Amino acid sequence: MRLILLGPPGAGKGTQAKRLIERYGIPQISTGDILRAAVRDGTDLGKKAKQYMDAGKLVPDEVVIGIIEERLQEADCANGFILDGFPRTVAQADALNRVLANLGQAIDHVVSIEVPDEELVERLTGRRTCRGCGAMYHVKFSPPKAQGVCDKCGGELYQRDDDREETIRARLKVYHEQTAPLVEYYEKAGLLRRIPGQGSVDEIYARIEGVLGG
Predict the structure, then answer these.
(1) Given the residues 18, 88, 169, 194, the one annotated as active site
(2) Residue 125: CA count within 13 A, CB half-sphere
(3) b/e code 31-57 from CB counts within 10 Å (16+ = b)
(4) Is 13 in the active site?
(5) Which residue out of 71, 127, 193, 207 is catalytically annotated?
(6) Is 127 marked active-site?
(7) Which of 47, 152, 160, 173 is flagged as catalytic?
(8) Number of structural domains found in the chain
(9) Which are the contacts of 4, defined by CB distance < 8 A and separation ≥ 6?
């Protein structure tokens, strides 16, 4: 099972990816994780990526694609994988098709978890983090027993800068601008599976399993 997982910040991609990993026994491949691993391992492509990362620049497509190609040839990808955070553009999607064709493989499904922006803003702006132990809460969905106080260590709960409404709306705007052409690309290819991302974790997972034929 070779999957691409699409979805805006706060859609629950990470939670669903964990379930899919357990169900299918395949790895989740996040571009951020594999870039850091390539840099840490000192591979040729990792050294190239490090030069850009150290300079605060975006790593060029050809380097990212090369690192992904290396990763897809590792033994744990023999039965498939879940790509998260890649591709981000149509050019990257074209490059991924070429890489997979060289490996005699192809994407089976592109799962797009879709949630209205207003609900995402509510989900993300409601998050609170403990300054002491890092525990996470939500003012609506999983509030602490005492407002502003961590149940576990008694530490102060605060709202991270990237959970503020203006930051979230800016991130969502970028996501939609980047992803709209990609959604259209995979829809034309007959690979896109739209999943409503509202409801319980189990309900959303059941929808995904339904389109994957699980």
Answers:
(1) 88
(2) 14
(3) beebbeebbeeeeebbebbbeeeeeee
(4) yes
(5) 127
(6) yes
(7) 160
(8) 1
(9) 82, 83, 86, 87, 107, 109, 110, 111, 186
> Model's pTM, two decimal places?
0.84
Helix ranges (DSSP H) in the chain: 13-24, 31-41, 44-54, 61-72, 90-102, 117-125, 165-188, 201-212
Catalytic residue selected from 18, 36, 50, 171: 171
Query: pLDDT tens track of the chain, all 214 residues?
Result: 999 999 998 898 988 999 999 999 999 998 888 888 888 988 888 899 888 888 877 788 888 899 999 899 999 999 999 998 889 889 999 999 999 999 999 999 999 999 999 999 999 999 999 999 999 999 999 999 999 999 999 999 999 988 999 999 998 998 898 888 999 999 999 999 999 999 999 999 999 999 998 5
Instruction: Please indicate, yes or no, if residue 137 is contained in any of the structural domains.
Output: yes
Annotated catalytic residue: which of 2, 13, 128, 207? 13
For residue 71, being part of any structural domain is answered with: no
Strand-strand pairing, 127-130 and 136-138: antiparallel
Domain that holds residue 161: 2-26+79-212
In-domain check, residue 148: yes
100 within domain boundaries: yes
Q: Which residues pair with 6 in a beta bridge?
A: 112
160 is catalytic: yes
Q: Quick check: helix, strand or coil at residue 177?
A: helix
The CATH number for 182's domain is: 3.40.50.300
